[in-house]
UniProtKB/TrEMBL annotation:
<dbReference type="InterPro" id="IPR004147">
    <property type="entry name" value="ABC1_dom"/>
</dbReference>
<protein>
    <recommendedName>
        <fullName>ABC1 atypical kinase-like domain-containing protein</fullName>
    </recommendedName>
</protein>
<dbReference type="Pfam" id="PF03109">
    <property type="entry name" value="ABC1"/>
</dbReference>
<keyword id="KW-0732">Signal</keyword>
<feature type="signal peptide">
    <location>
        <begin position="1"/>
        <end position="24"/>
    </location>
</feature>
<dbReference type="InterPro" id="IPR011009">
    <property type="entry name" value="Kinase-like_dom_sf"/>
</dbReference>
<feature type="domain" description="ABC1 atypical kinase-like">
    <location>
        <begin position="186"/>
        <end position="260"/>
    </location>
</feature>
Amino acid sequence: MMCLHTILSQSFIGAIVLLVVVHAMPTDPSKLKAAAPVPLGVINPPKKDLWWPLLDQTHAPWLKKIDLDPKNPEKRWECGESYDKNSEVFATDFTRKMRKAKLLVPGNSGKNNLGIFTLPHEVSEFESISGDETVLKLVDYDWEGSSCEVLALRKFAEFQKAKGQTPTFVTSGFVKFKDPPRMSGLVVMRKVPGMPLKGTKQWQEEGGQRQEMVDKVFKNIADFDYELIQVTGYVHVDFSSGNFLVDADMNIYPIDFGAPSIYPVERIPTRSEFDAWFLKRFDYIWHTQGGKLQLTHLISPKKTLT
């Protein structure tokens, strides 16, 4: 596995910079090479259209009813018992453990990202994990939805343990700052293999290879998500390309669980029920039709996206 600084030297850091730099490269770089970023036109609708109308878009009888956030009635949140629980999930003071942290990505790269850090290799502050194998994400302590990310990571940890995997989630706490005086939540994770789909050389190439990659990712995300429901009773609803890394064989590695990422289910759907919902949701997020890329959504590389 290539070390983190190698990733930082690659040129594909762009619209998905947060996800690119905090995770390790694949074990076989000869098969999967970094390349310059491509426009977001093929994948992902405008952010303002992604979640609100989420209620209507994701409606399925097996999903639990989405509760309205009483503080923001126009927004719809559901992340179970962890909503507005920052004082509970960010209860441990990790300020001293962050003194040797190295900044990887400045804040504001994601909706609730106040900065991504790692530690020197020789510093093992969390569960004897090598410092450079940890990802330290600062989140907004004052935003009620920050605790949702911890809940989602804990549910994902249940899933990973059931499959005999080492959980990505390590722990969570808070960090105090003096200038200006403030407190941030801290989410501690292990690095995972892979790289963003849009950062691969294969994705850059025209022709059937790009669709072949999407076909594999579509199947792998669907299989993962349905198994997640069966193990945890939660479904991942934000399976955009930026929230999963891929390896050379298009195996997927979920990496972003910021709210609203997972929803509870009322019951376990049949696979046909799930597949019908998943295809609709996939088309909506990836701008595909029946899982097939639509060239009409390609945007010129010279065009500036807002």
